[in-house]
Amino acid sequence: MHKEFSKLDLYNDLRTNFSEVEFLLDEPMKKHTTFRIGGPADIYVEPSISQMVPLIAYLKDNSVPFMVIGNGSNLLVSDDGIEGVVISMGRNASDIIIDDEIITIEAGAMLSSVASRAADAGLSGLEFASGIPGSMGGAVYMNAGAYGGEIKDVLIEANILTAEGEVKTISCEDLNLSYRHSALMENPAVVLSARIRLEHGDKAAIKAQIDDIRKKRIEKQPLNFPSAGSTFKRPEGYFAGKLIDDAGLRGYTVGGAQVSEKHCGFVVNKSEATAADVLQLMKDVDAKVYESFGVHLTPEVRIVGRNIN
């Protein structure tokens, strides 16, 4: 952290400068990730969109490291936690506004909530997202997708906060969305909100499709244990889960982490797993799959925090 600040000094200074925002000191990140894993963030905060811009400007001006997260559904946080400030786009940044076929969504809104609101309005095109346990901001950042659909299929544009502190609107085309990728991965920026376009459809049919997707998710995914969803990206021409299964790794365990016995594409926190357990398991799985099939597995889960090697 910047030499002029101790953690406590920074905490007190933030509370003075942003008195309307609640800051938490040494907040365990396992409370804010679906993996239920992770050491403490030095400081944790859930600002509104309007509070976000001045807060980030302050942190940059004072050379304080910070990280912006969504729902924490695709994160593995180090056991040693995260240095600086973790800014969560959560409940205070989750407005959803529907105007005919256009929906404007703040980055902290959950995809499942947006899909439900769209269905209630008789709007079709976002059914695929009803089972994705992530936020809109994270979905744009990684072009989230499932069941044959991706965010790029419906996205018009996103409002972002650039690394230079400028708020700007960037089109779907300029975001260069592809499989689990966006231009924001190479040019870091914070997604503030997004606009999507759907189509009017039959409300009953839309809701039936959402119910079907949620049923499939319950049947096929290990929702009874904490996880970060699909652990590895799909290698071209293969399915990660099948490679892992064919390598004999179904149920493979390191500490409290396990390759799911229900779906081998998921690593689950079966019993108070540490980040170190998960990382070792991922390393072992990649080595075994490569030994068996000559294919390397690339993490889909985002690995962050202190002393990650």
Low-confidence stretches: none
Structural class: alpha+beta
Query: What strand line-up does the widest sheet have?
Result: 6-7-13-11-12
Helix content: 25-40%
- The number of helical runs is 7
**What's the rounded overall pLDDT mean?**
94
- Globular, elongated, flat, extended or rod-shaped: what is the shape? globular
The third-level CATH topology of the largest domain is Uridine Diphospho-n-acetylenolpyruvylglucosamine Reductase, domain 3
Instruction: Please indicate the count of domains.
Output: 3
Number of strands: 19
Pathway: Cell wall biogenesis; peptidoglycan biosynthesis
Enzyme class: oxidoreductase
InterPro entries: FAD-bd_PCMH, FAD-bd_PCMH-like_sf, FAD-bd_PCMH_sub1, FAD-bd_PCMH_sub2, MurB, MurB_C, MurB_C_sf, Oxid_FAD_bind_N
Catalytic activity: UDP-N-acetyl-alpha-D-muramate + NADP(+) = UDP-N-acetyl-3-O-(1-carboxyvinyl)-alpha-D-glucosamine + NADPH + H(+)
How do the helices and strands line up, and which of them pair or pack?
Blueprint: H1 7-17, E1 23-28, E2 40-45, H2 49-61, E3 66-69, E4 75-77, E5 82-88, E6 96-99, E7 102-106, H3 111-120, E8 123-124, H4 136-142, E9 145-146, E10 149-150, E11 155-162, E12 167-171, E13 189-197, E14 199-200, H5 203-220, E15 227-230, H6 240-246, E16 253-254, E17 257-259, E18 266-269, H7 275-293, E19 302-304
Parallel strand pairs: 2-5, 3-5, 4-19
Antiparallel strand pairs: 1-2, 6-7, 7-13, 8-14, 9-10, 11-12, 11-13, 15-18, 16-17, 17-18
